[in-house]
Amino acid sequence: MTTDSKWGKETLRQMLLIRNFEETADKLTLRGKVPGGMHNSSGQEAVAVGVMSALDPKDVIATTHRSHHHTIAKGMPVNIVMAELFTKATGCSGGRGASMHLADVENGHFGGNGIVGAGVGIAMGAALGIKQMGHKKVAVGFVGDGGVNTGRTWEAVNMAVIYKLPLIIIVDNNQYAVETFVERVTGGNDIAKRGAGFGLPSFTIDGQDVEEVHKHTSEARNRALAGEGPTFINALTYRYYGHNVGEKGQYRTQEEIADWRSHRDPIDRFSAKLISEGALTQADYEAMINSVAKEIEEAVDFAEKSPLPDVSTILDGVDSGLLGARK
Amino acid sequence: MSTTTPTTQQNPTYSEAFQSGVREEMKLNPNIFILGTDLVERGGHFAQVKGIAQEFGVDRVKDSPISEAAMVAAGLGSAMYGCHPIIDLNFIDFSLGAMDEIINQAAKIRFMFNRPVPLVIRATSGVALGGAHHCNSLESLFAHTAGLSVAVPSRAYDVKGLIKTALRSPDPVIFLMHKKLSGVRGEIGDENTFIPFGSAHRVKSGKDAAIISYGYTIVSAQKAAQTLAEQGIDVEIIDLRTLYPLDTDTINATVQKFGRVVVADEAPMFGSITAEIAATASEVNFRHLKGPIVRVGAARAPLSANPQMSEAAIPSANDLVEAVKKVMSY
Ligand SMILES: Cc1ncc(C[n+]2csc(CCOP(=O)(O)OP(=O)(O)O)c2C)c(N)n1
Ligand SMILES: [Mg+2]
Question: Which of A250, A321, B23, B274 is deepest in the core (most CB within 10 A)?
Answer without folding.
Answer: B274
